[in-house]
Amino acid sequence: MMDYLLNYADVALKLAVGLAAFILILRTSGRGVLNQMTPLDLINNFVLGGIISGVIYNRDTTLVQFISILVIWEVLIIALNIIRRKSNMINKILVGGNVAVVVNSQYDVDKIKALKMDLGDFATMLRIKDCGLYEADFIRFESNGDLSVIKKSENKRLSLVVKGGKIVDETLKDIGKTQAWLKDQLKKKSIKLEDVFMAEWYEEKGANNKWKSDLFIIPMSDKKTK
Questions:
Q1: Which CATH class is domain 155-226?
Q2: How far separated are the first and last CA of the chain, in Å rounded?
Q3: Domain 97-154, architecture per CATH
Q4: Could you tell me the pLDDT band of residue 120, with boundaries at 50, 70 and 90?
């Protein structure tokens, strides 16, 4: 009877530790919902689930060993996340890049085919965004599997060109700009690239039917932008 109770106490304790680990990871990763998760986040969750389910009913694995395994795995994931945030190339390898498949209402069929996505699913995702094929002015597949959609009727275009002090080359290419152009824009606003937390290039059609555009900057610190 005592062995029976001890066995369930061990399982309950490991389950509580596993649950606490999951909650801690979700709270510290900033990934609140599934559609915000990158492939690396999903792999992390699958492996964590495997670790927890494999250890809970294994009495040969002590609680200290269980916690050690969780800590080692999370340190590895945290290190990979830090590295990918500092390197666009590593980020693209680990979680994939953003792919623009429609620019200025022109569909890039080759890019859509390269994504190997079911066309019915693609059309469904557009309908969920309340956008028909004929209405799309700009469509981009994000690294988390979601779609960014701008309709012709919206009269505005938004493009994130800098994040965390790093230039987003894919976005620059989508809007037909270069790194030299972006650095010149930053120079005009008297801010260095490494001091930019995020920068968005926006184009908006006004009441006079003319397009206006500018670079909106969020600095790393409390520095003022022009």
A1: alpha beta
A2: 74
A3: 2-Layer Sandwich (3.30)
A4: confident
